[in-house]
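pipeline: protein-struct stage 2 | run 1193 | Transcriptional regulator, TetR family
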Amino acid sequence: MPANVKQTMIERTAVLLAKKGLQGASFSEILEASGAPRGSLYHHFPGGKDELVLAALEHAGSQALGVLDRLSGKSARDVAEGFLSLWRSVLARSDFSAGCAVVAVTVAAESEDLRLRAANILRGWREKLAALFAESGIPRKKARALAASLVAACEGAVILARAERTFEPFDLVAAEQLAMVEAAAKSAS
């Protein structure tokens, strides 16, 4: 069994959310995927499934922010490409079986705490992207709009690619997003 059972449970829950959604990620599947003993769920997460899902959301959110942090100082195009490649790699690694754990919780959560946490994560991604675009020279107002568009487009493109089991819709959306970012960068210079 892994040394850090709690962290393994969090990571595996994030993957299950991305693949099966909130209702599809059962306690049994979480325990099976993490290799954790049955009693460990409430030992590590006395608040139950919601507490575990909140931790998994934090993990998923910080993974994306980590990618964005590494793009500091890059061109607007490089920032957009970095964010797009994050989602393309999720599709590739999962053979189109995974999407975004944060969106999975957003669309299915009955808990206001879960919805609010998902909203904060998505807002954090938008804010980080906007800051990176602004850092590259795009005016702040335009940077905010581009960031919102990029997050929304990526999430939608992931859904289309998963449904169709092909990169075609994702790549079409990605090309349009990159064209928008390049136009904004060009008009700013």
